[in-house]
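Folding follows sequence. Below is one example:
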Amino acid sequence: MLLRNYKIAIKLAATLLLILPLLLTACSKEETQKIRVAEVTRSIFYAPFYVALENGYFEEEGLEIDLKTTWGGDKTMTALLSDGADVALVGSETTIYVYAQGAKDPVINFAQLTQTDGTFLVSREKIDNFSWDDLKGSTFLGMRKGGMPQMVGEFVLRKHGIDPHNDMTLIQNIEYANVPNAFASGTGDFVQLFEPVASMFEEQGIGHIVASFGEESGHVPYTVFMAKQSYLTDNEEAMKKFTKAIYKAQKWVESHSAEEIAKVIAPYFEDTELSLIETVTANYKNQGSFATDPILDEEEWENLQNIMDQSGELPKQVDYKTLVNTKIAKEVMKK
C-alpha cells in the first residue's frame, strides 16, 4: 500500500513538473497587456521613449508595446481614431483639431515627451554673423501648413519682425518627407529641418545650421502621448504603468550623457552613424527639448494655442482641462 501511494505521488510530481511551465506561461500572458503605439515619425527627438523601450521599463510594468511609425500627424490621428492604435505620439495641436470637429470621444493628452520645437534653421550659404533679418527677401522652404513645425516657424519669424507671407517667398506645399531632398536639389535659400538631417547636411556641406526654432519658441507641448477618453477610462491602470515607464526613462535621460543615451537608442536608427546620433542627442539635450517629467502644464498649453492662433490655424480656444489629463502623471510622480 505504501509503495503504491509512493508511486502515485511520484507520478503526480512528474505531471506537475510538466504542466507548471505551461501554467506560468499562461499566467504571464494574462498579466501582460499589449498597447499599440503609433508614432508620428521615427526621430532621435523622441529619445526618452526609445530608452524606455530598450531599457525594458515597459516590460517591468507588465506591458508589451506594439510600435508602428505612421509618418504624418493626419495618418497618426486616423490610426488612433479608427482604433488602429491605442496610444499616439504626436503633436498636441491634433487633439484640438479633433475636438473642434465635434468628436464625441475626444483625444486626451496624458504624458508629454518633448517640450520644445525640434527643428533648426539651415542656410544654404555659410553665414558668420547670422541675423533673422537675413531671411527677408529670401526663399524659405518651410513645413506643411497647419503642422506644429510650420506654425512654430512662422511664430518665430514674426517674433523677429518678419512677416512670413510678405517679407519672403514661403514654400510650404512640399510633402514633409520630401523637404530635405528639395533643399538638397537646390530649392530655397533657407530650410526648416529636423535632426539628424540638419546635422547631416552640415557635415556634407549642403547647408549650415544658423538657428534653433526650439530655443526661440519657448516651451510648448510639441510631442505628447495621447489616447481617446474612452480608452483612458477603461485602461487607467495600464496608462499609469505606461506613464511610469516614460517617467523613469525621462529621469534616466536627464541624468545620463548624450554619449550614453546614443548607445542605448542606436538600435532604432540602424542607418545612422553612432557619432551623429550622439551629436543630435546633445543638441536636443542642451536646448532642453526632452521633457523631464510627463506633465503638460497650463502655460505650455496656452503657448501652443497662441502659436496656432498667430498662424491662423486655431479653430477654437479649448480649455486646458478639457483635453489635458495630468492626474495620471501626478500620481505616477508621487510614487
Q: What stands out?
A: Confidence is low (pLDDT under 50) at residues 12-17. The chain has two domains: 33-116+220-334, 119-217. The two ends are 58 Å apart (CA to CA).
